[in-house]
Amino acid sequence: MKKMAAGIIGGTHGMGRWLAGLLREQGFAVRVAGRETKTTAADLADRCDVVVVAVPIAATADVIREVGPKVKKGRLLMDLTSLKAEPVALMLAHSEADVVGCHPLFGPSVNEPAGHPIVLCRGRGDDGHVLMKDVFGKAGYPVLETTPEAHDKMMSIIQALNHFNTIALGMAVAEAGIPFSELQPFSTPMFKTKMEMVQKVFTETPGLYADILAGNPRTKKIMASYARVVRKIRALMDAGDAAGLKKMMEDTAKTLF
Ligand SMILES: NC(=O)c1ccc[n+]([C@@H]2O[C@H](COP(=O)([O-])OP(=O)(O)OC[C@H]3O[C@@H](n4cnc5c(N)ncnc54)[C@H](OP(=O)(O)O)[C@@H]3O)[C@@H](O)[C@H]2O)c1
Fold it and tell me: By three-state DSSP, how is residue 132 classified?
């Protein structure tokens, strides 16, 4: 039987390379394109049954606009972007192909499917959607199905708020003016865990985290809420009101958990 052809734009690194490996294991004939490869994004869009856009968030809209019209009806156009509403809307607007929005909720170094869900948002058509659900399901990844808008609402907390908090922590630690090498020997387990997160966000892919924050339509609302919370905590601490802070945390825990 002829292998299905998959073309991954942005398949030379990161999540695109991760998906290329997975699709090869599942019997697809995979070709990849980056900015330096001889094979171009347009070549893949012209020829492949499944075309995946896996480029950085800031480049995604332009790549979809360029390649979308070349992916023919009956084929599949999918993206891996960490945000879903805008890319899915663009894929629907710029292509007649089946459309699936996909967001693996983990980074490219993950090889163990258990406990690592993949979000799928059905854009257009059944065949492409069933195909990808099958590919990820067979590989053992839990598949979460939702709408692009519901996905982005969840990510405004799980990614935008979370990374904003990590960025704020890292910058505040730096402002304290004590070199990390001096803090390290005194570190508690909780501080170590948090600083590992700060180091990952600040040094591995800062552009990705900046794009995740800037690209989520709910980021402004989340940041305003964060600022309100900080003001409340500050007012209690200005008054030296430890009992008030304890009560606020206890009340919040009742709502949260
Ligand atoms: N990293 C994560 O943890 C993670 C998790 C889930 C989803 N995502 C999503 O996955 C997508 C890719 O992120 P990533 O972290 O994998 O990025 P990455 O490691 O920087 O890889 C980006 C890929 O896109 C290529 N590329 C960059 N600009 C391009 C352009 N204009 N045209 C064609 N190819 C281009 C790069 O190839 P060359 O450098 O060879 O040109 C590379 O192969 C993003 O939408 C991100 O939101 C990332």
Answer: helix
